Amino acid sequence: MTLTDFLPRDVSLTIAMALCAIAFVSGTARGFSGFGSALIFMPLASSVAAPRLVAALLLVIDFVAAAPLLPDAWRKADRKATAVIVLGALVGVPVGTYFLNVLEPVTTRWIISCFVAALLLLLLSGWRYRGKDHVWLSVGIGGLSGFCSGLAQTGGPPIVGYWLGRPIASIVARANILLFFGASDFFSMVSYATTGLISRESLVLSLIVGPVYAIGVAFGASLFGRASETIFRRICYALIAIAVITGLPVLDGILR
Length: 256
Prior knowledge:
Strand content: under 5%
Number of helices: 12
Order of helices and strands: HHHHHHHHHHHH
């Protein structure tokens, strides 16, 4: 038996290799800078395979990669404040999952590209919320992040921008972010499973792509401290921009 025999019916060996290459690049970005994996992976991967499949694939491999970080985050996080934001995600994730299920693949790709472009602008702006705490605002940001996660696993920038702007210790902010995404990913796993997005095909593909993603994360982490963080972040931003442009459906006839 060959690797092709284990691939999902609609995924060729060429597509699987392309997904592995994309996973390595996005994993390297996450390992070094802590962000950018979904913003690179989703526009590119959804241009070579169905958005529903690649969103489930990214959720599975990233959930497994992040799980070991949760116990320490639970001890260090402000669990009460995080719980308020998680309430928003509890609503946002199923809504995003619903749209991922009902929209046509090309429409989903346009939305993903526009979302990622907007989130890239948010990252480039250096936005941090420095106002007062409001329950409704926390729930709203959690809901927005949950919606982005449910639709395309791209819920990072709103949460990161919010928590890093709060007047709290950085170790607590990081723990809050990790804990939030642990809960958000759990909601996504349940939502994807109940709607059929977590399928045999996505699980089999995760066994192939997941190790490559993990190698990318480890490689990126090994670069930390050896290369300029400023330069590497600029490279990540450039990769996200390239992913958005090359992932546009309008370029299918030229690039694919």
